[in-house]
Structures are given as structure tokens and as C-alpha cells.
Design goal:
The protein contains 7 helices and 10 strands. Helix 2 packs across helix 3.
Length: 230
Amino acid sequence: MRNVRVIGHVAFEDLGSFSHVLKEKGCVLETRQAGVDDLGSPLDADLLVVLGGPIGVYEEDRYPFLADEIGLIRKRLEARKPTLGVCLGAQLMAAALGAKVYPGPAKEIGWKPLTLTDSGKASCLAPLENVAVLHWHGDTFDLPEGAELLASTDICPHQAFSLGNFGLALQFHPEARARDMERWLIGHTCELGAAGIDIPALRADSAAKAPALERAGTEVLRRWLKGLAG
């Protein structure tokens, strides 16, 4: 697992705490910007990581590059190549697998724990049990055929799924770090205002809960990578 290609959508939603886990394993990280850079061949990276962003998978009329990005992910998953999706990345994986992606019943922004399924408790997500994670999305997706559900919340029943041992889709943000949260609050100011989110309260909640997530989230990635090696 040497060559890691990262597809980003906005600069402030980056690898976060996942970066040092990959670097400590000797991975060479290459970030490409969706809609700007050539995303390359779907199969020429050892690991593909698709990060979050504020657009909807179903907005191909506004953001035509989404069709190519979904196609790239589809080819990669068909080849059973290691693929990790976070937030929008998870939704793109669901779409690539033929599942519907659509607006959820409410915005889910803030910190709260997941409810892990039995499969989730036995998976790499086990370190997240009873740990508040960062949620920041308005869309959700149907569970793709052949995928295994790992986690849910009251608002979003499909929070995480796995596909064999090579695909992991996470609707929430396990990579979030306390040191980065001000960038999120600035970058998403319009969404936060429209959703009526109390920014000072979210800032304080992030400062209190992000350190525990950073510890648990990095362990999630380590376990998943170990599963790939196995």
C-alpha cells in the first residue's frame, strides 16, 4: 500500500488525522482536485480516498465532472481495488454501486455517537463505539446491493457500509481534527447560517470532542488498512 491517491472537493476537507497514519506506513500521498485535475486511471493507485464536499451527487447538471468521478469509482470497485469514501465520497461510492443518493430528512451537523450494527461492532469501526463523531451532511443514500451496513444514526440510517474487505464508505467524518475546525466553520458559513446552527456552540463542542475522535478515528484507519494487508 504505497501509492495513495486522494480526490478532494474543497481544500479545507482534507485527510485530517488520516494523513499521518498513511505517512507513518510509508505511503506516498497524491491529491487531485475533482473538477480541476485529471483524476487518472481508476486502477493505478494502491488506495483511492475520496473526500467530502458541499455538493450533491445528483447535481451532475451543475457539476458535470461528477459523472466521470462516479464512473472512475465504479470501475475501481468492480476491480475490487481498495477504496475509502468519506461523506460525499461515501455518497459517490453508493451511486457508483447503483444506489440512490438524495436529500435526507434533515441536516445532520454536529457531534453525536453512531449506533453500530453487529457487523459494525466486529469491524474496523469498533473503536468508535460510544465516541461522538462529526456529522456534516444533508444528503443520504440507499444501501447498495451487496454492501454490509456498519452504522446508523436516528436521522441517517445508512452511516457506513463495507464492500468486501476492499471498500469502506463513511457518511460521517472520522478524520476531523480540533486544529482544523475553524476552517470548516469559515468554509461552510453559508450552510451553517441557513441551517440555523449556533457556531460558537459548535466550536466549543468540537474543541471538547474532536480529540477523542482523532484517537478513535486513526485507530479505525489502522485497522482497516491491516484488513487490506490481510
